[in-house]
Structures are given as structure tokens and as C-alpha cells.
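Question (not urgent): is this output format expected?
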Amino acid sequence: MMACESVDTIPCSMKSQAEQQLPPFPFHTLVLLREQEIAKQLRRAFEHRYLPEHLFYWLPSSVQAWVDLCRSAEYKNANRTLEVLRAAAPELVRQFPNIATICGLGCGEGSKDRILVEAFAGEGRRLNYIAADFSQALLELAAEHMEDVTTSVLGCKLDVLHDWHLDAVTGAAQTLEGPVLYSVLGNTLGAFDPQMFPARIRQHLANDDCFLFDGEIFSDSTLAGYDNPTNRRFAWGPLTAVGITENDGKLEFSTAPAGDGLFAVTKHFAATRDLRINIGGDAIEIRSGETLRMSSSIKYTNEAVLLGFVERAGFRVESRWRSSDGHFILACAAPA
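Got this back:
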């Protein structure tokens, strides 16, 4: 009978500190992307000299750098996002009295969606929450953010750029009773491709669902919001994780037009000496003078450009909010 004993029969004093800190409710995760596949993607990224957006949120050093960045006063996007969400949340609660689930696509550590979920809970409406992200570590942090204000939490570990992954997470949301609010926050729509993603998510929305999104308006101060010490630590995350340091090269930021009313904040690492890194047992050589490009952060020329991408995908923008400095837009749309 000993083999059938539950771990819960072990006295609390005998459990590890980590076990005692686990959330008080089960946290289930739908795994659509395996760690082994992500490790392969990381190796291919260094081989091809291009680090895509999602890999900046996977490695432990990157995750910690991201959490620190979100808490930093230097990271204007995080502060603007929280500002407009706090202004919009009470109105969203009134505007959508039947919402039963919030699905955070690219949820990160959950701080943005927490504002929404908390606003609904404050009116006596505890919602289901679905956290969807590339990083298992960030999903766990998001679950911790929600444990005291939700009815249930489901994590979805995925690559939202894959259609069948998006099918799966929206399918999970649709199995829950009631309308769904899909959130893509923190200028994340730019990472998902603002020209294509609105049409991809549109096909999954029922008539009473809604789509909450935001974006940064490009300005002369945009580059300063990225080329600062705190953001540089985040950008270095994937590099330091494989042993590349500031003694090995330079990290450079710039801005450039990206077409169709878009601007890109670009960054790259330029090696100043020959490097040999090891990823998953494979050695990769980077020669002095070689460039390792990194994903860009997309910005919008003006509000009309941002909203236009969503409206042309078959949405009707019903409400919008602007940050106090005028450089960040939050909008809520419903199927047209």
C-alpha cells in the first residue's frame, strides 16, 4: 500500500521549500511545443546568424532579464501598457458583461493581463484565464499572477506563428462556456506580424468574442526607449546564455522604415574576435567581423496605421485609449 501514498501525506516540514511555494491550485499546461524543438531552434538560429523574437523569452537568463525589464522605469512600453490598461479596464468590464475567459496570447509573465482579470474580479466576476506563450518559465509566472483572482488557469506552451498552435489554443478557449477576450498586449502584435496576425485570429472569433491589442507610435524618442542599460541586459540574454559577453563584441541598435506605415527598431551583435560556442553539444564558430542579427520591434507611424491593419482583417474597432504621452494606443475590436 505504500506505493499508493500521495505526496500530500508527507509532513509539510519534510517537503522542500520549492514544493511549499507551489500555487495552491493545479496548474495545467497544454504543451504544443517541446523543449527539444526549442533547443534545435536556438542552435539553428546561431547557425543562421539570426535570433528570432521568441528565443529572447526562453533561456533562464533571458527570462530574468525580461522580468527585470518589465519592472524598470526605463522600459517605456511596459509603463505605457500598464497605464492605458488601468484606464481602460473599468470600461472593458462594463462593455463586456458576458466575458467568461481571457486568453493572453504572448502573455509573458502575466502582469498586463492581471490588470484585466483583477478588474473583472473586483466586480464579482471571476474569469477563466488562458496563458499562451513560448516560455514555460513565463507561463508559470503568469499562473502565479492569476491564482487569487481567477476561476481556472490553463497554460498553453506554443509558437503562435504556427497555425495549428493557434487553432489549438483558441479551440481550448472555445471549450469554456461564454465569450472570450483575446489579448495581445505590450506591442506584441508587432512581433506576431501586424499585417497577417489580425486575419489569422479573426477566423477563430465568435460574434460575441473580442480582440484587445495595442501598439507604440513611432517618434524621435523611440530609440531611447530601447537603447538603454536595462533593455541592453535583456537583449544580451540569449548571448550570455551561450557564453558570449561584452568582451566578445558590440550590441548595436538603430531604427529604419519597414514599409506600409511601419518602423522597426533593429538590433544586432557584431563579433570583434573569433568565437566558438557550444549549443546542445554542437560547436558553432562565429568569426570576428560577423554579424548576428536579432528580431526587430515594430512600431506604427500613427494610430490609423495600427487600427487599419485590424479593421481590414474583418474587425470593427469599438473603443480605444491613448497613453498620456500620446505614443501608445490600446484598442478593443469585435468581429465586423
